[in-house]
Amino acid sequence: xxxxxxxSVSVVSGSLTAxxxxxxxxxxxxxxxxxxxxxxxxxSERASGLNMDWLTNYKRRLQFLGWDATPxxxxxxxxxxxxxxxxxxxxxxxxxxxxxxxxxxxxxxxxLSEDGEALECFEDNALSxxxxxxxxxxxxxxxxxxxxxxxxxxxxxxxxNFAQRFLFANPENGVRVAANALERVRFxxxxxxxxxxxxxxISTARQNLNDxxxxxxxxxxxx
Length: 223
Description:
Structural class: alpha+beta
Helix content: 40-55%
Number of helices: 6
Number of strands: 7
Shape: globular
Order of helices and strands: EEHHEHHHEEEHE
Mean pLDDT: 86
Strand order of the largest sheet: 3-6-5-4-2-1-7
Number of domains: 1
């Protein structure tokens, strides 16, 4: 039996987002816009020294736009695994995500590893200017009634320097996990469309052209 496929996969600045077939094109674009907006502000304020707590700032901006994110009380984020970071991410999200979401996450990561342009965009945005910090997210999204349900995995890494394809290489001894987060998010899409979509679209219009890359979906094992 064929595995279920995500409807779409996109690099959104320093995050990788998989949309299940329940998501319309409009739904996907709204998640992308909100995510892009929150990342841009969090990254800008961290770079300027105004707010070094990237994750808290990122979530605060998303909550302002209608994302209600809370850690699930019955989950934990395990410590670093011996394999590549991409495999570690999948093992983490499996604590909260449905099997279909986990499959979509694996497929999204595989597609990212095979697309040089998208991977370059992802790494350019995930890495700090000093190249000693990498901050990225993996989002798995599905429509649930009038809301969008999202499993959000966040990781902040420290290293003297990051090699290319750092998600897919065996981790170097110098890579240290500075922060992990795993959360279930409910996105009030109606509120976003009524109150914020047009403003966010204007704010992110130029960035959207450069920092969003749609990937062809490739299942692991396909030629």
